[in-house]
Amino acid sequence: MFTFRFIFQLLERSNADYLCNEAGGTAGGAGDGGGAGAGAGGSLLLPTHTHHNLQLDKISVRSISSEDISNVGSGRCCSAAARNPAIKTGRRLQLMQMIILPFIPILALIVQTSLTLQEILEYRADVADIETQVTIATDLGKVVTRLQLERSEVAFYIFTNGSKQRANLTQRFANTDHALNNMTTWSEISVPTAPDEDEDDREVMLNRNEFQSRLNEFRERVRLEPEDSSITEVMNWYTSINRGLLHHLNEQIKETDNSGVWRYLVGFKNLLKSIECQNIATSFGIRYYGRGPLTAENFVSYVRYEFMAREMINSTLNYAPILKAMYTNITSSKKYHRVKLMSNMVLKNKPNISDERSAVEYNEFMHNYTDDLRILQKALRRLIKEYVDKTLVEADRKEAIGIAILVVVLLVSPIIIILVKNAAATIQLYAMNLSQKAKELKREKRKSDSLLFQMLPPSVAMQLKQTQQVPAELYEAVTIYFSDIVGFTEIAAECTPLEVVTFLNSIYRVFDERIECYDVYKVETIGDSYMVASGLPVKNGNKHITEIATMALDLLDASSVFRIPRAGDEFVQIRCGVHTGPVVAGIVGTKMPRYCLFGDTVNTASRMESTGEAQKIHITEEMHEALQQVGGYKTEHRGLIDVKGKGLMSTYWLTCKDGPVRAREEISWCADMQPVFLDHLKLHPPTNYKLPKRK
């Protein structure tokens, strides 16, 4: 009980600390706070620490590394804190887990030991019951033995018409009564009411007191009127009593048939039956020697009981082989040979001269033989007692060992839990330090992966990381998009560099956010030029045509919400050019690797942008035909124009899409974005720098 109370108090204390931490709203998180510098591969993303810009960073589009994906998945799990040793709640939960982990086998050991102890106690109770039943069986055996001896004396007394007694009948009766009084239990016994009645009609069930009364009446009648009593009546009366007692003994042995002493008890019962049958056969033998040949019925009875006596003694020796040596000594004596000779004479049942002396001699030999069998009976009784005593000692020893093991487990369990708690605290300390280092390493790796994935397509970047080389590849069908800001040179001349940076950053961040909705790849931004491709590095069939067309309409609509700096209410206008065809793509350079596109398709798309008009999407005839095959887009023929390096080309305007285009309200929040460092410069301007005045 002490162990369970200690463990439950420890767990409740840990749960209380955990609930307090949860109620306090403790939250921890680390922001990367990093962005990718604009260059050949990405738009200008600058670090921010204000609440507004932090939200923008969360919403802004960036490439996602494999670590980010795993973190997103684990962040949704309610047990994420349990795996974070850097958080107090996580340490508490881990401590509880590490305490519960050894507690489970300890609890299992306690339960197993308790169950084993229960089995031992049940075994001890069973052994005690067996001891009681063996005692009952032994007492029954003593009563049967006393009744057998009494029957022999009474039969001899009647045979001599009361003239001779081999022993004092009064003492013999007293010995039988003493054995009856020592019996711990009593069952109903069948007693004949008359010697001539049928077996079913002549049995009356009596209790112990009634049986004792009937027995005394029978004894008194035999002693007072021996000439009126017959040996058959005496034999039937005592045989019925012994049959009832042996039946009760048989029931007692059945109740103990699951124990090792069962074989000895069965042998004990069979030995009693053997003596019983031998005594009955002896009565017929006395009649043969004393009164002449037996009748056919009596002869059959003699043979049956003689045969049953031998079978029972053989069965006893099979169940208790240890008695074979003693029985061999009995059968090798001269007295036994004399018994065999006289028994064989009875088995022949030849006419003879009645001789009381021969009858007495036969009776004496058989009485001595049964006495020898009773010596075997005593030896078997002693074996049974030794076995039961040994079993009781073994049960007591097992009980003591089981109790000792349970006590040791209950005493050692709290010590083990305390040691585990201390070890868990040490492990958590090292784990916290290791987690911090791993977190820093993971943060730096995420930064490098994010920068790499912004410079290169994710699939190409992963291939570059794994194989260290990416061969150039020809793509048969790719759509290229170019756009630039109309009048950007004049805008840059009129604004300060910081205003230009803010202006471009606002536009390109919106563009970057919008193109994430499409299956496209942003190739580069150079100044105000914005280049996007679809159909590489992962081929998408003919989908690249519709992706670029829809994206171009979307970006054209999104750009119109931005105002030109220092131009009042004048809005930004862009030119767009699109062409589709084959290109070659590959990694160029090792110091600052770039994913570059080569081919006439790139040049043609650039010419479409440079020869286009403000707020229009200029497309080639190939692009027009591809859109007509796909369907769902409206174009307008521009006519023939002279394109540098190409000559006259028939081109078109992409005007609209039959399906819906995202509303302007979805991206209007990006119109006034500016990097946070501008706010810092406004609050702390350099001493040699003055912000220009706006017109």
From TrEMBL:
Alphabetized UniProt keyword annotations: cGMP biosynthesis, Glycoprotein, Lyase, Membrane, Nucleotide-binding, Signal, Transmembrane, Transmembrane helix
SUPFAM superfamilies reported in the protein's UniProt record: Nucleotide cyclase
A Pfam short name: Guanylate_cyc
Full protein name: guanylate cyclase
EC numbers for this chain: 4.6.1.2
Gene3D superfamilies documented for this protein: 6.10.250.780, Nucleotide cyclase
Membrane topology: Single-pass type I membrane protein
InterPro entries: A/G_cyclase, A/G_cyclase_CS, Cyclic_nucleotide_synthase, HNOB_dom_associated, Nitrate/nitrite_sensing, Nucleotide_cyclase
Cross-referenced CDD domains: CHD
Subcellular location: Membrane
Residues annotated as transmembrane: 400-420
Family membership: Belongs to the adenylyl cyclase class-4/guanylyl cyclase family.
Residue stretches making up the Guanylate cyclase domain: 479-609
Enzyme class: lyase
Lineage, top ranks: Eukaryota, Metazoa, Ecdysozoa, Arthropoda, Hexapoda
